[in-house]
Amino acid sequence: MLYQYLKENHQKILHWGLGFIQVRVNDDVNYHFYTDKISANFDCETPHNHRRSFISEILAGVLQEKVLFVKEGGSLALTSNLCSVSEFGGYVRITSVDNNTYKKGDKYLRTPYEYHTVSSSNCVTRLEKFGDEHEVYSLGETEPVEIVKYDEDFLWGIVEEMCNEHSL
Description:
mainly beta, Jelly Rolls, 6-stranded antiparallel sheet, 4-stranded antiparallel sheet, 2 helices, 13% helix
């Protein structure tokens, strides 16, 4: 059972204000539980990249993704929002957008050079990271916000409920 495995092997359970709960197993493997039972402090439609490359596998539910292809030059600002400090990273333009829908069993790969958004209200994914670390940016001007804090027992309750609901 996934819930028992995660309880016994996790390093941390986290909520980043993005509409999902992250259970970190180690530095390279996370499980994400997308749910509307916690608040999303950030606009999840804000395109962003990731620090490292990753492969994400959908374990349950459906995940919607938009992949935005960008080039330097243009009027859209790159903003870094690490550690509650916004830093300007230059300007880009969007050259194209792909819309993807993933369901149980599907996998997708993203690199730090790709920008995307994801959304779901009831999905479980396993994410495995690899490769070197890179700068993390969002597209558009964004301001740091304070993330709502949740008690770990509350987060674990949601994880257990979702594992049971999806027979994981």
